[in-house]
Structures are given as C-alpha cells and as structure tokens.
Amino acid sequence: MTLKVAALYQFVSLPDLAELRQPLLDLCTGLGIRGTLLLAPEGINGTVAGEPEAVDTLMSELRHGALFGGRLDNLELKFSAARDMPFGRMKVRLKREIVTLKQPRVDPTQTVGTYVDPGDWNALVADPDVVVIDTRNAFEVALGTMRGAMDPGTARFSDFPDFVSRTLDPARDRRVAMFCTGGIRCEKASSYLLSQGFSEVYHLKGGILRYLEDVPPEQSLWQGECFVFDEREALGHGLSLREPMEDESGHD
C-alpha cells in the first residue's frame, strides 16, 4: 500500500502546549501514524505518515476536533506519497520555536508578509526590482532552487538575520520575495524582515512543494530537486519520488 505523508504547520498561540503533548501522541499512535510533530508557544510544525484513511482522520481531528478547540483552522497542509514508511516511530516534542530563528521579538502570529499563490509567483519574480531569496540552508539550495534566486549560504535558519544585516538594505531592496520547502521558514523570515523596516515582503504560499505540485514543468522556474526531511529525501515536479541521496537531517 502507498502511504500518505502530511507536512503541516501553523503559527498560532499555544500556551497550553504541555497539556497537548500526550493526548496528541496518543491520538497519532492509536491511528498507527509515525513521524514528528513539534509544539511551541508559537504553533505546530511537523511531518507524519500512515495509511491514507488514518492520516485523513488525524488532519480532521487537528482542524476540527476538541483537542485544539478549533485553533488549527488555518493549518497549512501538503500531502505526498511514500512507498515505504519514512519514519521509525511517532514523536511529539515541545520546543521554544517550531522553526528556530532565535529572534524572540518576531511573532508570525501577529505579522507576516504577503502570501503569493504558486500560479502568481512567476509574474511577481519576473520584476527586476524584486529580490528573490531562497531561505533554506546551503545544502538544500545545492540540490535545487529557483532560477535567479539568491542563496544566503546559511548552515541553519538562525543564520538568516546575519545574512540580512550583511546583504540587504530596506532603503534599497524595497521588494523582497522569499520561498522555502513548505512555507514555514519564509513565513517567519517575512515577519523578521518587516520588523527590520522592509516595506514590501512576499512569500510563496505552500512553499516549493506546492509550487512543484501546481505549476507545470514547462512553466516552472524550479531547477533540480527539492530536499525533504525524511527517508524519501528528494522530490521533483508533481511531488514524484527521486533516488535517495546521502542522509541529512533537520526540519523546514
């Protein structure tokens, strides 16, 4: 059977995250689902896999069930497939941030940039006044990226503020467009840029994964493959599976 993989996140206030951990773990294990979910005061992030019906049940419970009380009504979801189970077990972890930027004043639950649907992305970045930035880490960019995008050369997402201070200027770079694997890093990066005085900040809704799914290859600006943080490791257009590369680890 082909397994269903769900990558998900939402920035939302979760002050009761400690009380949520065990019921969420019990829900996932009871459905036979494996993977990792991160809970932080700023929201939820993770990737899980299981039989399609089980994954659909979990997503329905997250969005509409009593556990989160309707707070995950704007959950960003991306589904793909796996031939084999890409995770060894189910983990629910409590973290300070669901994606680590180490900028405590940045709050994506309050302020983020302008979302851009995949179908509108090419027109936006065709403007020569738009600075296009791949917010992922250097090893991910090396595997594949958007044509014409700037590589920050970061080893980890928390290096991004240093890249901004060294490279970008809000007086000069008035329009900035960013993308990442599933949308979470550039959502937080957009919040950071706005806090630094950048006036027009855009980010690709649903990230590279949605772009690869929605935009036909003949219209695509994507070059190469997209690294994903599980045993599938690389996806192409249509979210098709690629041959494994050497093992890396981390989260979008």
TrEMBL record:
Q: Which CDD domains match?
A: RHOD_YceA (cd01518)
Q: Which residues form the Rhodanese domain?
A: 126-220
Per the UniProt record, which residue ranges are transmembrane? none
Q: Mention any Pfam family matching this sequence.
A: Rhodanese
Q: What catalytic activity is recorded?
A: uridine(34) in tRNA + AH2 + O2 = 5-hydroxyuridine(34) in tRNA + A + H2O
Keywords assigned by UniProt, alphabetized: Oxidoreductase, tRNA processing
Q: Which Enzyme Commission number(s) are on file for it? A: 1.14.-.-
Top EC class of this enzyme: oxidoreductase
Protein's UniProt keywords contain Oxidoreductase: yes
The protein's job, in short, is: Catalyzes oxygen-dependent 5-hydroxyuridine (ho5U) modification at position 34 in tRNAs.
* Family indicated by similarity: Belongs to the TrhO family.
What is this protein identified as? tRNA uridine(34) hydroxylase
Biological source species: Terrihabitans rhizophilus
